[in-house]
């Protein structure tokens, strides 16, 4: 699934750089129809990873310094629990 996602991203990046669909298809070794469908879907939905990255960045910006300090201070305890569980499940 990751490979398919990377292929879609490569198609969109190439298209955004001005490459023609036939060039993209030849370079990636796929059909021109697959390239066309991917570009059409992207244009219709605007779906790409950039939206997800923007949401994650916004979420990261909302984390307070107090919360980060708690996480860092708690990390050794979590590592010890992981080691004690031999990498298995722990709470």
Automatic annotation (TrEMBL):
It holds the Pfam family HTH_23. Its main location: nucleus. It is found in: Nucleus. It comes from the Eukaryota. GO terms for cellular component: nucleus. InterPro entries: Homeodomain-like_sf (IPR009057), WH-like_DNA-bd_sf (IPR036388). This is Uncharacterized protein. The lineage of its organism: Eukaryota, Metazoa, Ecdysozoa, Nematoda, Chromadorea.
């Amino acid at each position: 699934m990751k490979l398919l996602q990377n292929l879609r991203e490569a198609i969109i990046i190439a298209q955004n750089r001005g490459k023609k669909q036939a060039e993209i298809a030849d370079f990636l070794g796929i059909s021109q129809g697959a390239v066309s469908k991917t570009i059409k879907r992207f244009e219709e939905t605007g779906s790409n990873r950039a939206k997800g990255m923007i949401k994650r960045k916004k979420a990261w910006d909302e984390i307070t310094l107090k919360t980060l300090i708690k996480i860092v201070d708690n990390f050794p305890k979590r590592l010890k629990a992981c080691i004690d569980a031999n990498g298995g499940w722990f709470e």
